[in-house]
Design brief:
Layout (H helix, E strand, L loop, with lengths): L1 E7 L4 H12 L4 E7 L4 E6 L6 H10 L3 E4 L1
Antiparallel strand pairs: 1-3, 1-4, 2-3
The structure holds copper (II) ion (CU).
Length: 69
């Protein structure tokens, strides 16, 4: 499954790396792409292992705001 999330608060490459690492620490993540300019985080994941709620919580946990599209 693929989900696009609107993530507020990312300002630089370090933020992108923080979000990427946090999401990748979850089980079932296949691919994450972060578009800093568009504030979009695109995640491919195995829905039998994780869900949008868990992904959003993880992003919030490391200090960003998730606005679901
Ligand atoms: Cu940053």
């Amino acid at each position: 499954m693929n989900k696009n999330l609107h993530v507020e608060g990312m300002t630089c490459g370090h933020c992108v790396e923080t979000v990427t690492k946090a999401v990748n620490s979850l089980a079932g993540i296949k691919k994450i792409t972060v578009d800093l300019d568009q504030k979009q985080v695109s995640v491919d994941f195995d829905e039998s292992q994780t869900d949008v709620g868990a992904i959003s919580s993880k992003i919030i946990e490391v200090g960003f705001e998730v606005i679901e599209n």
